[in-house]
C-alpha cells in the first residue's frame, strides 16, 4: 500500500501520466480494503490445539507411509489401492467358501441318504444270500448246517459270514466255526451263489469228511464252477477227481538221498487206473476198474443225471 502511494506521488507533477496516477490511487484504495478484510477475517479465527495436533499427526503419518512405500505419497496411495483390491479378493473368496460350505452340507445330506439306502439294501439281501448258500451247503453234504450273513456298519459295509456246521451249534464266524473241509465247502457254496469271483480258484481238501452222494455233488459243483474260470482242486475222492476236465497225479520219489514231488497228468487208461486205485487201493482190480469207468462216464457224460455239461 505504501509503494502504491509513493508511485502515485511521483506522477503528481506529470500531466501525461494523470490517467495512470488515477489508476494507482484506485488500486491503493482496493488494497487498503483487502488489508482491512484480511485483518478482520484473521482476527476472527479461533485457535484449536486438538485439531492442530490431529493435522500434525496426519502429516506425520503420511510422511511415514510415503517413506515405507517408495518415498512419495503417490507410492503410498498406489500401495493402498493394491491392498484394497486384495481385500476385495479375500471377501470374494470368503463368499465362495460360504457357497462351497453350503454345497458340502447338501452333499453330506445326500451321502447320508444314499448310505441309508445302501445299508437297507444290504440288510435286505443278507437273508436271501444266507438261504441260497445254505441250500448249496445241503447239496454239498452239510444238510444240517446253518449259514447266516451279518450286516453291520453305517452303510452295511461290515459283512460277516457265520456258520453252524452241526445241529445245536450257534453260528460263528467261518474262521472259528469251520474245519478245513467245511470252510472249503462254505467258500465253494458262496462262489456258486455269487456272480463275481477270481479267474482262478484253489480248493484244498474241499471234500474232507464226505463221501458217496455228497462227494458226487461236490464234484458236480466244482465242475459247474469251472465252466467260466480255472479251478484247481486237491482231492482224495475219486468222485471229485472224475468230474475234472484234467487229472494230475502227485507222487513222491526218493533217490540220491533226496525226496522229490512229481506231478504227472493222466488220461485214458492211466486215468482209469488212478481212479481205480483211489476207489479200492487196487488199481488192477477188475471190479475197481469197472466202478471207475462207470464213475468217470457218469461224471463226464452231460446226459447222465450226475454228469456236468461242459
TrEMBL record:
Keyword Cytoplasm included in the entry's annotation: no
Keywords from the UniProt entry: ATP-binding, Coiled coil, DNA damage, DNA repair, Nucleotide-binding
Keyword Cytoplasm found: no
InterPro entries: DNA_recomb/repair_RecN, P-loop_NTPase
Superkingdom per UniProt: Bacteria
Alphabetical list of CDD domains matching this protein: ABC_RecN (cd03241)
Entry similarity comment: Belongs to the RecN family.
Name the UniProt record assigns to this protein: DNA repair protein RecN
Amino acid at each position: 500500500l505504501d509503494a502504491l502511494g509513493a508511485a502515485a506521488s511521483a506522477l503528481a507533477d506529470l500531466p501525461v501520466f494523470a490517467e495512470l496516477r488515477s489508476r494507482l490511487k484506485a488500486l491503493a484504495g482496493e488494497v487498503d480494503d483487502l488489508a482491512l478484510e484480511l485483518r478482520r477475517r484473521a482476527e476472527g479465527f479461533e485457535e484449536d490445539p486438538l485439531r492442530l495436533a490431529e493435522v500434525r499427526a496426519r502429516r506425520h503419518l503420511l510422511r511415514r507411509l510415503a517413506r515405507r512405500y517408495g518415498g512419495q505419497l503417490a507410492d503410498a496411495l498406489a500401495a493402498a489401492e493394491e491392498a484394497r483390491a486384495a481385500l476385495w479378493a479375500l471377501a470374494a473368496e470368503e463368499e465362495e467358501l460360504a457357497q462351497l460350505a453350503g454345497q458340502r452340507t447338501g452333499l453330506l445330506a445326500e451321502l447320508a441318504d444314499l448310505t441309508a439306502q445302501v445299508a437297507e439294501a444290504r440288510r435286505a439281501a443278507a437273508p436271501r444270500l444266507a438261504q441260497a448258500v445254505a441250500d448249496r451247503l445241503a447239496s454239498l453234504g452239510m444238510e444240517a448246517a446253518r449259514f447266516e450273513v451279518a450286516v453291520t456298519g453305517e452303510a452295511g459295509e461290515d459283512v460277516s459270514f457265520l456258520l453252524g456246521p452241526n445241529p445245536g451249534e450257534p453260528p460263528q464266524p467261518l474262521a472259528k466255526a469251520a474245519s478245513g473241509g467245511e470252510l472249503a465247502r462254505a467258500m465253494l457254496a458262496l462262489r456258486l451263489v455269487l456272480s463275481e469271483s477270481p479267474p482262478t480258484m484253489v480248493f484244498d481238501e474241499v471234500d474232507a469228511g464226505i463221501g458217496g452222494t455228497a462227494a458226487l455233488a461236490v464234484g458236480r459243483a466244482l465242475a459247474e464252477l469251472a465252466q467260466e474260470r480255472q479251478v484247481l482242486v486237491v482231492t482224495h475222492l475219486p468222485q471229485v477227481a472224475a468230474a475234472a476236465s484234467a487229472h494230475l497225479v502227485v507222487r513222491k520219489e526218493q533217490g540220491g538221498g533226496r525226496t522229490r514231488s512229481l506231478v504227472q497228468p493222466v488220461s485214458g487208461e492211466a486215468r482209469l487206473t488212478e481212479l481205480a486205485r483211489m476207489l479200492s487201493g487196487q488199481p488192477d482190480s477188475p471190479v475197481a476198474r469197472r466202478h471207475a469207468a462207470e464213475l468217470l462216464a457218469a461224471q463226464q457224460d452231460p446226459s447222465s443225471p450226475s454228469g456236468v455239461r461242459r
